[in-house]
Write a structure and sequence with these properties.
This protein has one domain: Methylglyoxal synthase-like domain (Rossmann fold), CATH 3.40.50. The chain starts with a strand and ends in a 10-residue tail after the last helix. Helix 3 links the parallel strand 2 and strand 3. By secondary structure, the chain is of the alpha/beta class. A 5-stranded parallel sheet has the order 3-2-1-4-5. The protein is globular.
Length: 131
């Protein structure tokens, strides 16, 4: 499956730790991330990640385009709900596109763990019908 990983600045360390903890599951899938988040994950996990531009430089728009073309199966977006971002409309668009295209999305650690464990059990195989 194609998994997108996004994290606001305040959640990047949490994303790194999440990816370390679930490296075994993540390594069996194709990973995509916004630029800085992808680089930070690669540094601590040695996972291969396709990196878009940084979110504020258009990476969120690139991810949105991939979602529109049905190239992403799962999004893990650890977001900081307390800090407004200048590119918030782009991030909101990603969330809207996930809803439109039935792409599971996690926005916090609890939901991310549920989705990644579901993925490992094979619970997300229904996504193949959408390809």
């Amino acid at each position: 499956m194609n998994i997108a990983l996004i994290a606001h600045d305040a959640k990047k360390k949490l994303m790194q730790n999440f990816c370390i903890a679930y490296r075994g599951i993540l390594s069996k899938n194709d990973l995509f991330a916004t630029g800085t988040t992808g680089r930070l994950i690669e540094e601590v996990t040695n996972l291969s990640i396709h990196k878009y531009l940084a979110g504020h430089l258009g990476g969120a728009q690139q991810l949105g385009a991939a979602i529109e073309h049905n190239e992403i199966d799962l999004v893990i977006f650890l977001r900081d709900p307390l800090t407004v971002k200048s590119h918030e409309p782009d991030i909101s668009n990603v969330m809207t596109l996930c809803d439109m295209h039935n792409i599971p999305v996690a926005t916090n650690l609890a939901s991310a763990e549920l989705l990644i464990k579901s993925l490992d059990r094979g619970d997300l195989e229904w996504r193949e019908m959408y390809k």
